[in-house]
Amino acid sequence: MDITVVLCTHNRSESLAKALASVAVQELSPGVRWEVLVIDNNSRDQTSAVVRKVSDEHPGRFRYLFEPRPGKSFALNAGIQEADGAILAFVDDDVVAEPKWLENLTATIRNGESAGAGGRIVPGWSCPPPKWLPCFDRQALGPLVAFEPSSEAGPLLEPPFGTNMAFRKGMFEKYGGFRTDLGPRPDSEIRGEDTEFGSRLLAAGEHLRYEPTAVVYHAVPQNRVRKSYFLKWWFDKARADVRERGIRAKTWRICGIPAASFRRVITWTVRWFLTFEPSRRFSCKINVWINAGAIVECYGQSQRQSATAKTERT
């Protein structure tokens, strides 16, 4: 098998049906053998029925795997183990892929030019963008899972997003799977399992490529176009970043928290209160929440480290 598309899903049978329909009609070069592996992460809706239906419509193309351990990273790692493809392409259950998505995403991996690749992720709006949304700030749009680092194809200098990325399967054998302390699960929305893996490969010197013609459209439901959703997403993202990178060792700390974090919270809070243009004001508020999330995670890690050290002494 040349390519396995790995799609993890949890209680999203309606959007899953649309995602699978778009993946089923992918147009690949003659002779490329490919499959779609759907990992059901303990769903309680009609997920299995949706997969059966699309499997009947496209015999031999789809496989179904049930992963009972709740948590996306568990589902991803189960998919990696089960996949037969030499290349693993990852896509989520709430996107619609263009017909040449898989061909364009995996082309440089198949010819040996790159170890992995990321494609373009376009927000699929269900309502007009609100005035408070800082559309000028690409990073601030992270909660919408938008990814377009360049208009041109070329080397990736940042990790791709999990809803549109692919790697040689050997990368997982060499560098390990997705971290299970990251990634959404029922008791936590802390993400970052996808970008952490990409960062691992980039740090090791592996070549990743950006392919803007590998396009998926990521749904933007109305319940995500709320300030509260954006603020919580960035709060949790900051916590994930601290888990991934750790706390810088050589810094002055207060209760285990780098002092600079408090200074940044104060700075961005002042800017927030002194800025009146809606999108720039909200951008400042996002930065307050980012630094607050980092403070919470640093404090938690410091407390756990202190408790471990105390236990070892006794």
Explain what the structure shows:
The protein is of the alpha/beta class and about 325 residues long. It has 2 domains: about 220 residues, Spore Coat Polysaccharide Biosynthesis Protein SpsA, Chain A (Alpha-Beta Complex), CATH 3.90.550.10; about 90 residues. It has 9 helices and 11 strands. The strands form 2 sheets. Strands 1, 2, 3, 4, 5, 6, 7, 8 and 9 form a 9-stranded mixed β-sheet that branches. α1 packs parallel to α2, α7 packs parallel to α9 and α8 packs antiparallel against α9. The radius of gyration is 21 Å and the shape is globular.
Mean pLDDT: 91
Q: State the total count of DSSP E strands.
A: 11
Gross geometry: globular
Per CATH, the class of the largest domain reads Alpha Beta
Low-confidence stretches: none
Major β-sheet annotation: 9 strands, mixed
Secondary-structure-based class equals alpha/beta
Write the element-wise H/E pattern from the N-terminal end onward.
EHEHEHEEHEEEHHEHEEHH
CATH architectural label of the largest domain: Alpha-Beta Complex
CATH third-tier fold name of the largest domain: Spore Coat Polysaccharide Biosynthesis Protein SpsA, Chain A
Distance between the termini: 54 Å
What percentage of amino acids are in beta strands?
15-25%
CATH superfamily of the largest domain, called what?
Answer: Spore Coat Polysaccharide Biosynthesis Protein SpsA, Chain A
Kindly state the percentage of residues in helix. 40-55%
Number of domains: 2
* CA-atom Rg in angstroms: 21 Å
